[in-house]
Design a protein that fits this description.
Layout: E1 2-4, H1 7-13, H2 19-24, E2 40-42, H3 48-51, H4 55-61, H5 73-87, H6 95-105, H7 114-130, H8 138-148, H9 154-159, H10 162-178, E3 182-184, H11 185-198, H12 206-215, E4 220-223, E5 226-228, H13 234-247
Parallel strand pairs: 1-2
Antiparallel strand pairs: 3-5, 4-5
Helix pairs in contact: 5-6, 5-7, 6-7, 7-8, 10-11, 10-12, 10-13
Length: about 250
Amino acid sequence: MIILDEIEFLLRSSKDSGIIYDFTRLNEFDLSRHCNVIGVIFIARSTEFHDKIDSSELSTLGRLPIEFQPYSIEQISDILVTRSSESFNPNVVGTDIIDEVSLFTTSSQIGGDVRYALDLLLYAGNLAEVNGGDRITLDQIRKAHGYNHPSITIQDLKELPKNHLLTLMAILKVQNRRKKQYIELKEVRNFALELASEYKIKKFEFEDYMNDLLDRKIIEMKSLKEIGMNITSLAELEPLLEQQINKK
């Protein structure tokens, strides 16, 4: 059995347009000799590859592609538990770390890419080692993720109105309190209204600010009741937010 992964890359990098045709007819190259290849499997990133195959190739390869859905959060967690037990000393990677990395990996930004999840553990592990820690922390995971997929920049903060910044601060505070990436919308709303009152803001349209932040892809919704924010580090973002709020 021959299995070719990332077949689109092979087609892009090869000048031979008949690769697929040749692979599907290996047993016809020399009819006087037995072919030990019982079949060929092509793995592609999307079904678009199947749509581009010519009819003569489809007749041998097959017209019904098997489509694999992205890994679920449970599947990614299982993979990470196994791989981390092989790569790290005991107790370096806790269940809270596995849960956080799985959440990041199944987000719309990453789309279930397990390689990214493994890289995240590697980068966070390096941070823990450099800092002299004996286990990976949630903040190190968020920092590693933020470096690879920043969702908010200093320029973003400068351009946001004060009420948007207060909404972000509310999300950040609740995330910090709950030690979770996704927190309950109701709790964030209540905290945001408290902040608005503290800053003597009489009219505070929380839903409008939140929807605008969603449109800007600064925050994201896990469900109708939970929201979150991908950031480099809770500890690093809070003083930056306070600075921008006090300037406006």
